[in-house]
Amino acid sequence: MRYLLKTLALPPASSLLLAVLALILWRRHPKIARVLSITSLVSFWLLATPAVSIALMQSLERQHRVLFPDQLATTDAEAIVILSGGMDSHASEFGYPVSDAHTLVRLRYGAFLQRETGLPVLTTGGHLYRDSDLSLAEVMANDLRNDFQLLTEWTENRSRTTLENARFSAQILNDAGINHILLVTEGFHMPRSVRVFEQTGLTVTPTPTAKTWEDISALSGWLPTSRALHQSNQALHEYLGMLVYRWL
User: 152 with 145: CB under 8 angstroms?
Assistant: First the structure.
């Protein structure tokens, strides 16, 4: 139910729901229906434009700066935590589940950090849809071993949300006597992640990766694309998540 409500609250479903509501109200409440239909069209168009989607993503990404390589030598962090993004459980070309694109860029940077610092790695993510016998964390650990020749120290397999990523990972790290972590995820996901990990009592050094950048012209910035709509969905998902977490 949580995933259904989330899907309906975010684009493109939210704009389409407004259009459906406008059709339902068209005969009895034509003025309201016209407002809803215009809102549906305008919101869909704007959220699908690079100008709007990049602005939304960068409003999240600018909250935490990247950690430059020369800063790693002075960090007193004790472990690296890599957050899951999802998996491709139908990757027939591999013959086994692999991490999706979002998780892969996080793993790439996590592997870089491990080589630079020598710190142990924790991967975190449970079973979301039961598409695989492996948890997200286990798939990440397999990818780190197979593709980056890096062994994972801990896998946290129970979490289904970022909030649970933080709580269950903190339990493992506290048992290991670790208090300070390098937290790895994409830039747009970092503000919500840092907040919930710090709430567990951990000291967090944000290490964001894959920040959004696109060279757009004055015209192309306002022409809708599927990529821009996806980015708007991601950014609004983060803002929605931060709003919900305030109540927890």
Answer: yes
